[in-house]
Write a structure and sequence with these properties.
Elements (H helix, E strand, L loop, with lengths): L4 H26 L3 H28 L6
Helix pairs in contact: 1-2
Length: 67
């Protein structure tokens, strides 16, 4: 059984958002804007379990390809 494109695209989008928010976090930390740092950290912490859930869902869909 093949993996769905929706799951792969969703996983890529979540990981792209993690990269973007991490870059914003580092930028705001450099300028000592700690309120924004905490917000971006919270967003990253929320996005990570979502990525794990998508991964687990996709790994359950997949299976051995016999042929």
């Amino acid at each position: 059984m093949k993996r769905s494109y929706v799951g792969v695209i969703g996983m890529c989008a979540i990981l792209l958002l993690n990269i973007i928010f991490t870059q914003l976090l580092v930028h705001q930390f450099f300028y000592q804007n700690y309120d924004a740092v905490l917000i971006y950290t919270g967003i990253n912490i929320i996005l990570f379990p979502i990525a794990i859930l998508i991964y687990k869902k996709e790994s359950r869909k997949g299976g051995r390809i016999s042929g």
